[in-house]
């Protein structure tokens, strides 16, 4: 089974409500869709959203990398030698991890289809269902409290709260309002998206601990490159600290692990360049006794399906952040992982189980 063709399509889908973090405000999901066809007619799917502020990858850069660099390299290659394909993928270009992730997804989709197994089983099959959290965008304390209450009423038991956009005292008011609205039984995770300095993060997390706000974890409190600051925060507070933007590659993961700079690591396929490298990060973390979350950017159910298959396959992945498709105005993916509220389940279909994806090229901007 060899790669016969690689098509590149664009997809735009509005969000039901703007997604706001310390780094950006998003009104629509924008991504490149990869349709990889094997010489036996099987089709593998991949997706790469444009997340310039995090990965540096624009739609134009992703499309160019796939069409100009990866496609000429991969056409005619044997999918049964997928180790060679994925090695050459990562050696062919520095960076552009989102484009690599889209190709990687399609390759794994086709290989698992050839093996007649759902991808999560092909990768290890540790569990066959997972539960996602839901994200509360950063807004006024009152609006965030109202949003949080609505998500809890909808059945979500874990909320990821975006903070770090302005002063920390305002963030504390946000968290206090949310906790008052949702009660003590719902887990709260904070995501500062690099918005704090180490000393103010330590002071504020300690204050939240003293206030009894019961925060499960704080994600990426400091700048991505400030590993020393991340290490300081982790050592100084009781609350778990998770590295996100600080860890793209296995090499970066190893530095964080060796320096005990975080209690947890958030793996995203768009940062890692796909499942191939994501597995290495998870394996390193597991050897150090550090659990992982798998999350996503603002992606459709296509890319989230690939990430969910990877997450479900591994014992060491214990937390899941896959709410992005639930934020979209409409679902344009046929097949793939399915949602029942917060619960995500997998079909018995081989590979990703995706049979079609409607894209902007075909139906226009919605």
List keywords for this structure.
366 residues, alpha/beta, eight-stranded parallel β-sheet
Write the layout of secondary structure elements.
Layout: E1 3-20, E2 25-38, E3 43-49, H1 59-74, H2 82-92, H3 97-114, H4 119-123, E4 129-131, E5 134-136, H5 141-153, E6 158-162, H6 168-182, E7 187-191, H7 198-210, E8 215-219, H8 227-236, E9 240-243, H9 250-258, E10 264-268, H10 269-272, H11 275-287, E11 291-295, H12 301-313, E12 317-321, E13 333-335, E14 338-340, E15 343-345, E16 354-357, H13 360-363
Parallel strand pairs: 5-6, 6-7, 7-8, 8-9, 9-10, 10-11, 11-12
Antiparallel strand pairs: 1-2, 2-3, 4-15, 13-16, 14-15
Helix pairs in contact: 1-2, 1-3, 2-3, 5-6, 7-8, 9-11
Describe this structure in words.
- The protein is α/β, with parallel strands linked by helices.
- The strands form four sheets. It has an eight-stranded parallel sheet with strand order 5-6-7-8-9-10-11-12. It has a three-stranded antiparallel sheet with strand order 1-2-3.
- It starts with a strand and ends with a helix.
- The chain has helices at 59-74, 82-92, 97-114, 119-123, 141-153, 168-182, 198-210, 227-236, 250-258, 269-272, 275-287, 301-313, 360-363; strands at residues 3-20, 25-38, 43-49, 129-131, 134-136, 158-162, 187-191, 215-219, 240-243, 264-268, 291-295, 317-321, 333-335, 338-340, 343-345, 354-357.
- The protein is globular, with a radius of gyration of 20 Å.
- It is built from 13 helices and 16 strands.
């Amino acid at each position: 089974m060899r790669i016969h063709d690689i098509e590149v399509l664009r997809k735009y889908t509005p969000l039901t409500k703007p997604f706001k973090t310390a780094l950006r405000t998003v009104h629509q999901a924008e991504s490149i869709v990869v349709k990889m066809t094997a010489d036996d007619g099987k089709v593998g799917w991949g997706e790469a959203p444009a997340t310039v502020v995090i990965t540096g990858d624009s739609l134009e850069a992703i499309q160019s990398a796939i069409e100009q660099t990866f496609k000429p390299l991969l056409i005619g290659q044997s999918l049964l030698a997928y180790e060679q394909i994925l090695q050459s993928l990562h050696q062919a270009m520095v960076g552009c991890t989102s484009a690599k992730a889209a190709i990687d997804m399609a390759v794994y989709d086709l290989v698992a289809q050839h093996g007649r197994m759902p991808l999560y089983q092909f990768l290890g099959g540790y569990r066959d269902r997972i539960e996602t959290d839901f994200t509360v965008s950063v807004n006024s304390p009152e609006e965030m409290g109202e949003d949080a209450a609505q998500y809890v009423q909808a059945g979500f038991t874990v909320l990821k709260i975006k903070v770090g956009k302005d002063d920390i005292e305002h963030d504390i008011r946000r968290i206090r309002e949310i906790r008052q609205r949702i009660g003590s039984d719902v887990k709260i995770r904070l995501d500062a998206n690099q918005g704090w300095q180490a000393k103010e993060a330590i002071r504020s997390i300690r204050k939240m601990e003293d206030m009894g706000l019961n925060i499960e974890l704080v994600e990426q409190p400091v700048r991505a490159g400030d590993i020393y600051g991340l290490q300081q925060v982790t050592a100084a507070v009781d609350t778990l600290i998770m590295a996100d933007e600080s860890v793209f590659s296995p090499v970066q993961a190893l530095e964080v692990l060796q320096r005990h700079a975080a209690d947890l690591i958030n793996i995203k396929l768009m940062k890692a360049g796909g499942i191939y490298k994501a597995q290495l990060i998870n394996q390193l973390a597991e050897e150090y006794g550090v659990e992982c979350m798998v999350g996503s950017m603002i992606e459709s159910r296509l890319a989230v399906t690939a990430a969910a298959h990877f997450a479900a396959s591994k014992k060491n992945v214990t937390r899941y952040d896959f709410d992005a498709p639930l934020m979209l105005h409409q679902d344009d993916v046929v097949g793939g992982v399915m949602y029942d509220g917060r619960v995500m389940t997998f079909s018995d279909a081989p590979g990703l189980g995706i049979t079609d994806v409607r894209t902007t090229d075909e139906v226009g901007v919605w």
